[in-house]
Amino acid sequence: MKGAYIFFANGFEETEALAPIDVLRRGGVDLRIVSIYDDRTVTGSHGIPMVADMSFGEFLERAELEGTAAGDLMLFPGGMPGSTNLAACDKLMELMLRHYEEGGTVAAICAAPSVVLGKLPGLEGKTMTCYDGFEPALLEKGVKYTKDGVAEDGNIITGRGAGHAISFGLAILAHLKGKETADKVAKSIML
Questions:
Q1: Burial class of 29 by CB neighbour count within 10 A (0 to 12, 13 to 18, 19+)
Q2: How large is the average pLDDT for residues 21-31?
Q3: Which of 86, 121, 129, 134 is 20 to 30 A from residue 142's alpha carbon, by CA?
Q4: Which regions form coiled coils (predicted)?
Q5: For the CA atoms of the chain, what is the radius of gyration?
Q6: Is the pTM for the entire model greater than 0.85?
């Protein structure tokens, strides 16, 4: 699917969503926020309501599903039960699989690398990170688990948790727009 999208489900971790959105938009990525529901309002794991750019129905009507490349992104914040709610959305998981198989970039942080990206085939030998306690599901799939704050392996980018959300966003930005752009954004936010 062409473009860059972040998907919100009730129970998403607010910091893991907002930090990458901020970093990517500062870097010139036209990242669009998608609620997986008919309603655009989604509530985070700490009770903070957020309004997405589009509902899931609007996303399905507007998304260009053909011509996926490495510069196209599907991003999944962590949080519980947000990650399990994302993983339970069959149509979203079907689109993620197609996106990944066609060479699109997938990124997930916290529980989402295990709960959401763990549904992808062919993860054996891939280096990934996730929130502590969620690594057994990845290890069962033959993933090389690391406790690094951010791990990038081809078109898979993963983050460990909220404390790494800005670094995670910067890694995605470097992947999409180059290291120079990511360095410029990092400098602008005093990193």
A1: buried
A2: 98
A3: 86
A4: none
A5: 15
A6: yes
